[in-house]
Amino acid sequence: MGAITLEQAKLNAVEDYDPAVIDEFRKSSVVLDSLIFDTAVNPAGGGATLDYGYRRLVTQRNAAFRELNTEYKPESVTTEKHTVELKVLGGAFEIDRVLAHIGPRTSDEMALQMAQLIKATNAKFCDATINGDTAVDAHGFDGLDKALKDSTTELKGGKDWSKFTNADEAMTILDDLDEALSVMDEPPTILFANRRVLAKIRSAARRASMYTRNPVEGLVGTSGHAVTREQIGNTILVDPGAKPGTNEDIIPVVGGKSSIYAVRVGLDGFHGVTTTDGRMLKTFLPDFNAPGAVKRGEVELGPVGVALKATKAAAVLRDVRVAPAGVA
Q1: Domain assignment of residue 234, yes or no
Q2: Which domain holds residue 257?
């Protein structure tokens, strides 16, 4: 059993173009780039499944002093059994061989279709990571929102950040954030929030000289500059964006209120799961040398899933007000 990142998955690439596609996934998805994937599921052999079973730590145990000639009082932690079934996601496109490479190589029809499919697949994975619910979509996996519901790290404080206009209120935002994250066992790796919530956090962090943009080694954007990640300390700020094929936010603002999710990435915390071969991403490019006018291409991510090993490795702060009452 081992663990890999999406960057390390390039070493398992079969085709020459797979590493380039993996880099595009990393550039456009902070979530995929930041997660560790446990390569634990082996689908080979008769009767094999894509299930990943684990026990989630629910409570923590105590320790005590012992009087001489007496025994310690036995105590155990509480765990819950959970199972995630790995799923595949992605899509396909069709393109006429005449149109495939009309125009500059970086913006022709082939490049456009691949870029948009990668963008949509990233959005679908991120949506499932936050909102996934197998009761709603049996082809997906359960996400953070479902895992944290009614847990000890689901906070419903109803913080009001809508009146943020000065430095003192900036400190209030950071204090509220610290208070919420204090329920976790360790500082978070990633903070997920709607762009309007992140604007408040970003502005407050700037006033406290805590906001930074750090380059990702080995990733260069279309401008020729290094791809950067927004951070407060060691915590990466992530706007999950919109759901694929729509303008609907993955983490919405409803009635002026939204939620903030935080996770500590690690094999003992929140992590991804994939198969033992580590080939999380597969690309199938059209063969323009074969007969047939219309060609088909596909990009597939998976089999993948996510697991929360400890309840305190993630938290959610609900009902954070970012707009006055009556304002959407």
Answers
A1: yes
A2: 2-321
